[in-house]
Amino acid sequence: MLCVGRLGGFGARAAALPPRWAGQGSLQAGIRARRVSTSWSPVGAAFNVKPQGSRLDLFGERRGLFGVPELSAPEGFHIAQEKALRKTELLVDRACSTPPGPQTVLIFDELSDSLCRVADLADFVKIAHPEPAFREAAEEACRSIGTMVEKLNTNVDLYQSLQKLLADKNLVDSLDPETRRVAELFLFDFEISGIHLDQEKRKRAVDLNVKILDLSSTFLTGTNFPNKIEKHLLPEHIRHNFTSAGDHIIIDGLHAEAPDDLVREAAYKIFLYPNAGQLKCLEELLSSRDLLAKLVGYSTFSHRALQGTIAKNPETVMQFLEKLSDKLSERTLKDFEMIREMKMKLNPQNSEVMPWDPPYYSGVIRAERYNIEPSLYCPFFSLGACMEGLNILLNRLLGISLYAEQPAKGEVWSEDVRKLAVVHESEGLLGYIYCDFFQRADKPHQDCHFTIRGGRLKEDGDYQLPVVVLMLNLPRSSRSSPTLLTPGMMENLFHEMGHAMHSMLGRTRYQHVTGTRCPTDFAEVPSILMEYFANDYRVVNQFARHYQTGQPLPKNMVSRLCESKKVCAAADMQLQVFYAALDQIYHGKHPLRNSTTDILKETQEKFYGLPYVPNTAWQLRFSHLVGYGAKYYSYLMSRAVASMVWKECFLQDPFNRAAGERYRKEMLAHGGGREPMLMVEATRNGGGSVGESARSCCSPGMRIKQGWNPGK
Q1: At which of 217, 249, 274 does a domain end?
Q2: 449 and 400 part of one domain
Q3: Is the pLDDT of residue 15 over 70?
Q4: First CA to last CA across the chain, in angstroms?
Q5: In Å, how far are 214, 305, 307, 587 from 302, measured between CA atoms?
Q6: What are the beta bridge partners of residue 245?
Q7: Residues 463 and 516 in one domain
Q8: How many domains is the chain partitioned into structurally?
Q9: How large is the angle between the packed helices 634-645 and 525-534, nearest 10 degrees?
Q10: Which EC class does it fall in (predicted)?
């Protein structure tokens, strides 16, 4: 999953990053290769040993989080935030007093960078830091910076300084393509924030945006909040499957893999039981988004949110989803029938397929048909081996190596966080990845990529290196073995590393379009593409070794695993279509024709097929409504694009260096600084017109494989 910045305009976009040779001569000349550090160590070994804690440093001072001096204590967030806000005031004055030209765009980007460097970091810390004081301070910083962003997006003087540049044809013609696009993106952010409105309405837009930020934060917290039930209401023989608290049983998830049908049914009905406060929060969030969209001139929030994406508008999205649903329907029915037969075989008393059944029974079918019990595979997928596999792939494909680097005291938030230096064979250090991979109390159960600092060319000609976090929830090593991954965990690791490489492998001039700051329905392409590599025997064979014997994973086991992923794949994808359609309807025409629960019921019956369960409200657990509001379809569309890139560039040879360099130069290189379909077409190297690429991405011609966890 890509964690998208919640800020618009001067805040983070969802996007990608370009290499320095991508037709940017002046940029190339200004970047100096980074030297190799002697403190780096091989990546595989670093992940198969227990963390040793920070080295004793008798002379060095304690650094703050991510090396930011102020963040050695929670109070530092207030200092960093105030510093950013003071710098913002100076930059706003500069932007408004500077004659229009390329310098205007550089000032805007520096303004964006100064805010994002606090907001992006705080966005991660507020959910991942183990200390409540740090989380609370980060939450306050997010709110403060978010409020400033909304004020800037309705600052008329600032807007006019940019408008003067783009209104002058001679000046516009003198801009290079990336600078022009970044200027247009900033202008667009002003327009969707209501800059054209009178003063009273602009203030209303700011107030609505701040309210939406608050409601989003509240709703997100509620999506993970457990439900409880009195013990005596649950059958005694299943109580041990859940956590007890006095006279109550705590249900903190769906227990989708539990073999007992009654356990899954109880978890589903209790965890999804409607919470009145959460329901009110969702209704207010959807209503506020609709009010904001109408205030700034859009008929629906979806129309506003989809500006600048591959899909362009909600009509295209719904057409895409309906076509895909039609294509899947016959195979989905066959999948449900297969699940019904397996359920009848194991539980003859009740063979009706219910929403809590597919994850478990599809796993049973896969295991029975292909003998893919995870315990058979885990010994071959130690975390160290998987990291070494990524290192081999990236080195052969892109000339990239990953090295472990010892963090300084206070630089990381948990002693088991690893710091990786990303190094190119000729260009040197490209950036840093902090790997927060292991389970701990109060850590969100999501696999995510967070941008901490975006790359950009600084005024002194040096390059601001990108910094990201990859967050997983892997089991810790034991006395007898290193951390061992299931095949699904291994695929998730590759997926998230795809996001990280999107952030690392470019050199855009502007941080506003760096890393994963691109249209949301394009941002998942590199990560999903990495899943294809993770499921190719030629790649897996390079690293899958038994952690005790060194024996390679037999080819027939990989073949069985890949074949098993086709089992119930249509039903898995149909579920994603249902989620995406529900998201579109919620963000479509308001007032909604029914309650959010009634709409859930109707949409589930139309796009999924399994019955709605009375007195449940799955939408109240749909966390993606916050970061991916009106854009959940992006996973499906990105998969269509990734499928096309895989088939045309890497299917014949997953280690093709020429294809890898083209992929970096033409796609990863440009971030949000270029139209997505232009990047896809250039990567395909003349495999059809841009129009043909767009049409094939908006048609359901992707390879149907095992569905992905919506938490990615």
Answers
A1: 274
A2: yes
A3: no
A4: 3
A5: 20, 5, 9, 5
A6: 248
A7: yes
A8: 3
A9: 60
A10: hydrolase
Q: Which whole number is the average pLDDT over 330-359?
A: 95
- Cis peptide leading into residue 274 (ω within 30°): no
**Nearest to 552, CA basis, from 389, 393, 437, 390:** 389
Please tell me the distance from the alpha carbon of residue 144 to that of residue 122, in angstroms, as a whole number. 11
Integer angstrom CA distances of residue 570 from 290, 328, 700: 33, 6, 12
pTM (global) more than 0.90: no
Q: Which of 556, 184, 505 is nearest to 372 (CA)?
A: 556
Please check whether residue 579 is in contact with residue 622, taking contact to mean a CB–CB distance below 8 angstroms. yes
- What counts of helices (H) and strands (E) characterise the chain? 28, 11
Specify whether 231 is located in the same domain as 182: no
pLDDT, tens only, 229-261 = 999 999 999 999 999 999 999 999 999 999 999
Looking at residue 479, the DSSP 8-state letter turns out to be S
Query: What type of residue is 570?
Result: A
Q: Please confirm, yes or no, whether 496 is among the known catalytic residues.
A: yes
Q: Do β-strands 428-438 and 467-474 pair in parallel, antiparallel, or remain unpaired?
A: parallel
Tokens 């795809």, located at residue: 498
**What dihedral do alpha carbons 600, 709, 422, 37 form, nearest 10°?**
110
pLDDT digits (tens, 9 = 90+) for 674-701: 988 889 888 886 444 434 444 444 444 4
Q: Is residue 607 assigned to a domain? A: no
pLDDT 10s digits, 405-429? 999 999 999 999 999 999 999 999 9
d(CA 289, CA 223): 19
> Element (H or E) spanning 403, and its range?
strand 400-405
Cα–Cα distances (Å) from 251 to 226, 243, 254, 534, in that order, read 6, 7, 8, 34
Q: Are residues 532 and 425 in the same domain?
A: yes
Of 157, 180, 196, the position where a domain reaches its end is: 196
SS3 631: coil
pLDDT class of 322 with cuts at 50, 70, 90 = very high
**pLDDT (tens digit, 9 = 90+) per residue, 159-209?**
999 999 999 999 999 999 999 999 999 999 999 888 999 999 999 998 999
Catalytic site residue from 496, 531, 666, 675: 496
The tokens describing 648, both together, are 């045309």
The answer on 240 and 189 residing in a single domain is: no
Phi, psi of 437 (to 5 degrees): -100, -20
Confidence at residue 59, expressed as pLDDT on a 0 to 100 scale: 52
Residue 445 in domain: yes
Burial of 364 (C-beta count, 10 Å sphere; 0-12/13-18/19+): middle
Same structural domain, 95 and 155: yes
Q: Looking at the structure, tell me whether residues 120 and 245 fall in a common domain.
A: no
The domain of 247 spans 226-274
Helix 487-504 to helix 383-398 angle (10° resolution) is 40
Q: How many Cα neighbours within 13 Å face the side chain of 130?
A: 11
Asked whether 451 and 17 are in contact (CB, 8 A), the reply is no
Closest C-alpha among 307, 181, 319, 326 to residue 695: 319
Q: Which amino acid is at 651?
A: L
Residue 128 domain-assigned (yes or no): yes
Assigned domain for 168 exists: yes
Q: What would the mean pLDDT of 471-476 be, rounded to a whole number?
A: 94
